[in-house]
Design goal:
By secondary structure, this protein is α/β, with parallel strands linked by helices. The chain has 25 helices and 21 strands. The strands form 5 sheets. The protein has a 7-stranded mixed beta sheet with strand order 10-9-11-12-14-13-19, sandwiched between helices. It has a 5-stranded parallel beta sheet with strand order 1-2-3-7-6, with helices on both faces. A 5-stranded mixed beta sheet has the order 16-18-17-20-21, with helices on both faces. The structure holds thiamine diphosphate and magnesium ion.
């Protein structure tokens, strides 16, 4: 392969290789100490990692995986910094001691940027492809300008076994479909812990990638010239043509899988692996290029000395303090109070579905960083509920587009899009289909801010039409809020009317955190009897509702002595309004509007006033968010309660049946709610 490699690069590369090797050797020698926390090292994989690391620039983005410590050294991370992470020290630059060795996240001037990635194999594929998609979006919209030849590339690094994960297919599909500027690097050591390639794959990375239409280069990742020039060529091609490439580098794994899974337990190929060791190969290359033996020995011994010294210093570094646990659960939101006009006289009554549409239209008109994608939201249909109608016509196909049926990609790509400075609004077609995307939401989206120690909050809006309505049946009716409420690090809105939906959508946009907006399909058009109040006057353009502020929908008569506070959200609000008509003056209704954060202050205040409380949910009741809230209220308001805190929800069954009689029997309604209120008032 072409380009001649100069002596400086050879010296630098050999220094990096010896440093990486010294780290590996030192960890092994001191395993009683270094294995307190699990770690893996690059031993055997160094050459290809150095070839990538040395050719990345400050404009680039990279997602190294847990075996990429040589790549990290090559972009300029010091052994000391790596060892701060190894030992989970407070000053670990990636996570402040929160995550494992060689799980980087970096936003440092002059360095390639590294968004957070989880430890789940292969799951970095989608967020990192999201970075490339964001870069492409910005280029098309004229939001970024680079000198010719300096256009950013994105590198996503994988182990060979990790690409058998299904979600990697979604990433490859999108990179190829949209021709994104990304290099996938697959380091193929033929091992998936103890399972060999012969047991885990039908085809290797090269053949697999070709099926997606990706261009591939297959190389010996221990051969320095081949690795360096292949990466040089691939980067040049990606910078110029802005197209994806997969580099499949064959390498031997010379170390344990991790500190916890030792090679002598199961490896039968160690002799062969050793014969492919990249270190002696690079050493020989230096000799062939005019380095003397003593120059080479000098490089080796100074690398070892540096690593030993850094280790001594890292051991002395401070551990995090208990109070460090609590920082960066969320990035601070700028929206702290309700502002703007909720019901301006000059505006018209607007269906809930259109309130959301108008909110997005206003956001997109004002912010080029705002884009919308999901299934069927593009020009032809504008969403299966017409919730995105006209947006693609107005803003073009680059800003509003259809995705394949890939919920994981839809959700997980927001990590990358947000990292490059965009504000993606994405849509999951029905709450029933959030499950394939839940892994990305939990594993990548929700933890990015916390595990990067505040460096990479994910700002995105995930719209999810939800709820049962008119025989939607078992796969177009489900409620999912309890599962979502268990995911810390995301915010959840569940508005019951158009004004709230618009105000919360806007507020979610300015929130630096990931927000899921649950939009009840049965409220979109106010077609169901009793849901008329979901249709409201459209709020003003600047109307914002802070998260965690509930709304009092109905107040009690001040002369009434026996009163109850009903706490609910979404469709429950409308059941409560209907039921309250049977108990005039006795019912106060609190619409939570957001499920996380939740307005505990108002809840406890009102329950303490009334001494009686009913919580309504559309979910099957057992183990629900509503029951958990009931427990919290019981604990906090016990002294003021005159009745048990009661919850009402759907029947505890696996699905909402299609038949309308069965559906009605399954769900709460205003009569069932009214009966419960009656029971509670009777205490
Ligand atoms: C989703 C998920 N499943 C299982 C694991 C446990 N695990 C950690 S590493 C690994 C093997 C990965 O092999 P490969 O991608 O080839 O990388 P290598 O370690 O060989 O470099 C497994 C199964 C995980 N981290 N994530
Ligand atoms: Mg492997």
């Amino acid at each position: 392969m072409g380009k001649k490699i100069n002596k400086d690069i050879l010296k630098k590369s050999y220094t990096l290789m010896c440093t990486a090797r010294a780290l590996s050797d030192l960890y092994e020698k001191n395993k009683e100490i270094t294995s307190k926390y699990v770690h893996a090292t690059s031993k055997g994989h160094e050459t290809i990692q150095i070839a990538v690391g040395l050719q990345l620039t400050k404009n680039d983005w990279v997602a190294p995986y847990y075996r990429d410590d040589a790549m990290l050294l090559s972009i300029g991370i010091t052994p000391y910094e790596l060892m701060l992470q190894l030992l989970c020290k407070k000053d670990d630059p990636f996570s402040g001691g929160r995550t494992y060795y060689s799980h980087p996240s970096l936003k440092r001037e002059g360095f390639p940027k590294i968004p957070h990635q989880s430890s789940a194999t292969g799951m970095q594929g989608i967020p990192t492809t999201g970075v490339a998609m964001g870069i492409q979006y910005k280029e098309k919209e004229g939001l970024s300008k680079y000198k010719k030849g300096e256009e950013p590339v994105t590198v996503c690094s994988f182990g060979d076994a990790s690409i058998t994960e299904g979600e990697v297919a979604e990433a490859f599909q999108m990179a190829s479909l949209k021709q994104l500027p990304i290099l996938y690097l697959v380091q193929d050591n033929e091992w998936d812990i103890s399972a060999h390639a012969t047991e885990t794959r039908a085809v290797d990375a090269t053949h697999y990638a070709k099926g997606f239409g990706l261009k591939t280069y297959t190389i010996d990742g221990t051969n320095f010239n081949e690795s360096f020039s292949c990466i040089h060529k691939a980067f040049k091609e990606i910078r110029e043509k802005r197209t994806p490439i997969l580099v499949h580098a064959k390498v031997p794994l010379l170390n344990h899988h991790t500190s916890g899974v030792r090679m002598e337990w199961y490896r039968d190929d160690l002799e062969d692996a050793k014969s492919r060791d990249p270190l002696p190969k690079l050493r020989l290359l230096l000799l062939e290029n005019g380095f003397t033996n003593s120059e080479i020995t000098d490089i080796e011994s100074s690398a070892t000395k540096k690593v030993d010294l850094d280790y001594k210093n890292a051991l002395k570094a401070d551990d995090p303090k208990p109070e460090d646990l609590f920082t960066h659960d969320y990035a601070p939101s700028p929206v702290l109070e309700e502002i703007g006009v909720r019901l301006p006289k000059e505006n018209e009554d607007t269906l809930m579905v259109d309130s959301a549409l108008y909110a997005i239209r206003e956001l997109m008109s004002e912010n080029k960083e705002c884009l919308l994608y999901g299934q069927d939201v593009g020009k032809r249909l504008g969403g299966v509920f017409r919730e995105a109608a006209t947006l693609a016509e107005t803003f073009g196909d680059n800003r509003v587009f259809n995705t394949p049926i890939q919920e994981a990609f839809i959700i997980g790509s927001t990590v990358g899009m947000s990292a490059v400075g965009l504000k993606p609004i994405v849509e999951v077609q029905f709450a029933d289909y959030i499950w394939p995307g839940l892994n990305q939401l939990f594993t990548e989206v929700s933890r990015s801010n916390y595990l990067s120690n505040g460096k990479w909050p994910v700002s995105c809006i995930i719209r999810v039409p939800i709820g049962a309505y008119g025989s939607g049946g078992p796969y177009h009716s489900s409620s999912v809020e309890s599962v979502l409420a268990q995911i810390k690090g995301i915010k959840i809105a569940y508005p019951s009317n158009g004004a709230d939906l618009k105000g919360l959508m806007k507020s979610a946009y300015y929130d630096p955190n990931p927000v899921v907006i649950l939009e009840h399909k049965g409220l979109y058009w106010s077609k169901i009897k009793g849901t008329e109040t979901a249709k409201t006057i459209e709020p003003s353009k600047d109307y914002l509702i802070p998260f965690g502020k509930a709304n009092i929908v109905l107040e009690t008569d001040t002369n009434e002595l026996n009163t109850i506070c009903v706490i609910t959200y979404g469709m429950g609000v409308h059941w409560a309004i209907g039921a309250a008509k049977n108990h005039i003056g006795k019912v106060e209704i609190i619409d939570l509007r957001t499920i996380n954060p939740i307005d505990e202050k108002l809840i406890f205040e009102k329950v303490n006033v009334h001494g009686k409380c009913l919580i309504i949910t559309e979910e099957p009741l057992n183990n629900s968010f509503a029951q958990a809230l009931g427990g919290r209220i019981q604990e906090k308001c016990f002294r003021n309660l005159d009745a048990p805190v009661v919850t009402i929800g759907a029947e505890n069954l696996p699905a909402i049946p299609l038949n309308s009689t069965l559906e009605a029997t399954m769900l709460p309604n205003k009569e069932k709610v009214s009966n419960k209120i009656n029971e509670i008032l009777g205490f």
